[in-house]
């Protein structure tokens, strides 16, 4: 049976990683002694077990990497054993297991879920509870039930539990036993979660952070050597504390760290907030240590009635801390030197009992997504190869290294098998993987998007923080990138995925546009000095590729829209929060967003703009946009002319007139040309004046109106359902995490320049940070106009990106302000 | 006695005697304080008293000082109500708009007993001024009786707080509910005054908790405070929607809340204050996003003693923060016209029910899996 070999490979996989096995053994032996039936032990234990279990399962899975069939078999075998063992434990521990088991749900799901293996597995042999466990069971007064009916594939005696498990032949067994434990806790939930949710289980808890990245930030800063970052971490924890759901270990850690920051002994140099009274410091330390011991031990103490020191011993709290608790509450205050030392011990204990275990159980979504994508591309390749093999003969394979070499071999075997047997199998697998990624996307959209774009060989600046999760992970699948190196491959994958979850396209678009924006703003900061450097060039190329992907995504969006998978905001009035409801997009807002990109002269972006306009279906808008100078493609032939002249030509108004001139005499003298252009400028000026007066009138009426209706509280004009704590994306129905950190208010010199040219709104916003902000403030101050027909673009919103472009794009720099105003006014008149 | 109750209600004789005595006491209209340990039936008794007083009076004042489980408002609020309609449902809390309200921001007075007392006294003064005065111009008396419900925390600081409250308010009637576990009861007699301080007779009723022979059993099973609080918040935020929405479950409410277009308000025009904790200024939005806040107007402070917060107009959920656009998104049932005055958000420790944060596919980022959360403060 395939399963048996699978287990062997899993075992050998683990053998190659002795560190992991030893780890697991340590966890196991420790975990066993914790089986006291109290909440503390259970919680700690489940988490530990799970960490090790997932390591084990992952180890097995990833050593094999490519051929998922095998991985599945191996995992399935493991799962079966775990389940069988779990049943046994259920019987044995039935008396005390019922309780809080939510912590363990994830664990069992994690280890076994990915296999999708549901059948119970029988075999020979029998699993007996380890003596330590038995002892504890006895203490808890639980009757042991017979367990003969439950069997395991491999016979195991109780002896193997007692001896330290260094031998790697037991490694797979260890993984199984640990999973066993996890399963025990899972039982009381009496829910079948095996294979249902997979590695990323449900069982939501309220936390004060909005993403694990924040948690990582705090963990890293809190233990850093720089007082500034420690202070930052403490501030963040303080914000968390105010939310009222701060986990106690974080609370206690923060308390101890904060005291240490006040202790001159730990702070080098003189700091203003140092506390010099030894008495006070000793009291603070004692209090923190007392809280630590009590927080971890008290609940169990109340339940079981066992002594504090005994229980502390069980969870591994150093005796020194327990003694300090006792001394400071019942006797003299311990000496500062002692409590100082104890505070360091306490931090170490917290690190190894909260921060590290928690870190290891945080779902690494990116890794999971990478693995799935990798699988997916593998199958897609196979399909491709199959097709090409009929014409070419043999499938091509690119060179891979390390782990991938191995999986390559396996994959070639697989390919052979697949081709020989049935291509339907791969289709099935493919749809399964697609489903899995879809599910991942529904709970972790930003991660999935980030990984997808990673494969586009791009850095995603906003998500770079998340990568530190993997740095200590030896099982990185980062190098699976080459599988997806072709843009074609990526596009196929996106197409496949987006037909399942159309929202993915919108999330991708949003992230991409933000990336382009970010790139552009960093570039404009650098000014034009390093214009021709190779770095600059490569960055331009990068942006270019991003823009091309935007265009492609828009085409995909169009096809999804046409097939009704993506709705249009405003057209459908349903505000369903159903998971399966099709996402909505506001094309007009998306158009704003694209137009607000400062590099609209990019070919791809301009064609994107046109595509969007076509999708909106407003032909006049399309025509107008075509005439806009944004569509640089049409004007490339003016390159040799003076910047000003070409700018005039680009003005639609001028352009038409120009056309006329050219019609009557194609070969006119430059003098004549200049004259005409002068006339044009004159005309433009007149129009500008007219326009200005109109604008003034309008502003006057507006201001009287807005004063009357200048309400502080107003209901949001447009809203798409999104969970509490998030805000809707600016152009679609996908939700985004809000930016809650204060925006840096320092003005960019470039922005001030832009603002001098901004006379349209009459008020200059000091907080013009990005293109989007500019557009938003514009639309905010002119709300009345928003009530106009949805499909009408109003000019202020177009003018802002225009203005940005004029200044950023180099060519226009020599244009005087007056001329600039002329140009702008003309554009506005035209759009109006 | 007859009630417009849909249920068959059996009142212990001791209770009905007390209720009849209080209701018939006149003049002046009785000011009744009800105290006793947790789960002794204080709220039930006050409801009965309220209904019987409404037989005689057009309006009855109800001063609720039980911040954990207020009768007509959301947890964390201290409120003065003026009720003119009999209660029909005795088992479910019904949310009513208060006359005056403070957001205390916690479910127990223990974090700040003085602020708690100040709020209570302010509300009481407010009642005396508005509803317990003989109108000078006409002969028509518009004095209303008052019922004061107290929290069940009657030991330690809780006892001190109760004594201070009794000494300030000086009620005409005090109802002390006693349970069978004597050690948990309040002292007998007029425990809040020294012997020589007795000036005028005080009507004290020491009655026993109704236990099993009264109402249906569900009222008497020890209540899970947390569940009760979440239920009240559920009822409270249900008001954001017309009753035609027919929201029954947490999930339905969560979905409705997720899709409800919230109010937008400029961050720059709003002040944010945490009532019990100092949050660093730079972190305020980390603290604010996806929490329940009290909506107050900084201009409307009660004239009385200093440590009071401004009057509260209701609660809201800060459902999103957009610092870049200078916008806060707030969901609240407070009507639009009252909102205009509001420029202060009061943060407290009223935790948002996790049921609000999971709406089908829409799960709040503050809900996380794989959390080692075993040792929360509640386990202590």
TrEMBL record, chain A:
**InterPro entries (alphabetical):** Las1 (IPR007174)
Where do the record's region annotations for Disordered lie? 1-21, 102-130, 768-788
Q: Would you kindly state one Gene Ontology biological process term found in this protein's UniProt entry?
A: maturation of LSU-rRNA
- Record-level GO cellular component terms: Las1 complex; preribosome, large subunit precursor
Extract the Pfam families matched here.
Las1
Any one GO molecular-function label of the UniProt entry: endonuclease activity
Domain of life assignment: Eukaryota
Q: PANTHER family per the record? A: RIBOSOMAL BIOGENESIS PROTEIN LAS1L (PTHR15002)
Q: What name does the UniProt record give this protein? A: Ribosomal biogenesis protein LAS1L
Provenance organism: Asparagus officinalis (Garden asparagus)
Automatic annotation (TrEMBL), chain B:
GO molecular function annotations of the record: ATP binding; polynucleotide 5'-hydroxyl-kinase activity
Q: Which domain of life is it from?
A: Eukaryota
**GO CC entries:** nucleolus
| Alphabetical UniProt keywords | ATP-binding, Kinase, Nucleotide-binding, Nucleus, rRNA processing, Transferase
The keyword Transport appears for this protein: no
UniProt domain NOL9 C-terminal: residue ranges? 259-353
What residues does the Clp1 P-loop domain cover? Answer: 36-186
Q: Where in the cell is it found?
A: Nucleus, Nucleolus
GO biological process terms, semicolon-separated: cleavage in ITS2 between 5.8S rRNA and LSU-rRNA of tricistronic rRNA transcript (SSU-rRNA, 5.8S rRNA, LSU-rRNA)
InterPro entries, alphabetized: Clp1/Grc3, CLP1_P, NOL9_C, P-loop_NTPase
Which family would the database say this protein is a member of? Belongs to the Clp1 family. NOL9/GRC3 subfamily.
State the protein's name: Uncharacterized protein
Q: Which organism is it from?
A: Asparagus officinalis (Garden asparagus)
